[in-house]
Prior knowledge:
- The structure is a single chain.
- The chain is an all-beta fold.
- The protein has a single domain (about 20-280), classed as 5 Propeller (Tachylectin-2, Chain A), CATH 2.115.10.
- The protein is about 0% helix and about 55% strand.
- It contains no helices and 24 strands.
- Strands 11-12-13-14-1-18 form a six-stranded mixed β-sheet, with no helix packed on it. Strands 2-24-21-20 form a four-stranded antiparallel β-sheet, with no helix packed on it.
- It is globular and about 45 Å long.
- It starts with a strand and ends with a strand.
- The mean pLDDT is about 95.
- The chain binds calcium ion (2 copies).
- One calcium ion binds next to loops.
Amino acid sequence: MVFWTCTPRPDHRPHSPSNYTLDTVFQVEGRQGVASDGKAYYISGSKALYKYSMSGELLLSNTSPFEGLEGAMNHLGDIDVFNGELYAGAENFVNGRGENIQIVIYDLETLRVKRSIPWEANSGQVEVCGIAVDTLNQCIWLADWLKGERLYRYDLITGDYLGHLSLDPIPFQIQGINVAGEYLYLTADDGDAELNNPDHVYIIQLGEVDSEASSSVVLEKTLAEFQRAGEVEGLCILPQAEKMAVLMNRGARIIQGIPQGFYPGYDHEIHEVYIYQIQR
Length: 280
Ligand SMILES: [Ca+2]
Ligand SMILES: [Ca+2]
């Protein structure tokens, strides 16, 4: 096993955050993740997958996303799309942690299971909140909501476990993960909705992953545009990196991950995708 760190390439300049302008918002069925290939949006709920048009119309759903998989499962996290397939981190979340973690790959056209890759149970990962395909490093990254100090890497072709990347500073309650070029984006549900505090997007300048240096986590954006502070979930950077989509939930009162009724004015939880224009 190798404990990976990443070295920015010699020509790298320090990262400065981009500017984000809110473009559109649309409601969706799922509360977990968002991905896009530029032709459609894909949304995950805890136990469902959905396909939406780029203007936000529901086109297709799969409400049995664990059918055909081995072992008990009850949770999907943030998702990604790559090469005509949808990637999801699935698990059985019981007793306050994830078990039977799998990388599940779905057909983008049908949202049906094609194959799955089992996790490395000795990796130290205890939950899977999201997944990202990294074409630069030819790997799959898994994030952990419970223990945010590490990301976990699997080979994109073979599915072999490659090692972990240590993060500094440690993000609190990671929800979403996405890789665009040499940048790895994370959302963290670190703003307390009880206090109306916003959540955040962080960035890691990934470059080529090797074993020599350290990875640092930098604040990229404060998510102040949400109509009401709630739970940030998945995110994706669209192809050409001109737009960012962020899924967020509002209305439900969720304390330490456990639903406890609703905030005043709400009788159900609302799931929305916020689309931002990116200016670098
Ligand atoms: Ca989540
Ligand atoms: Ca929050």
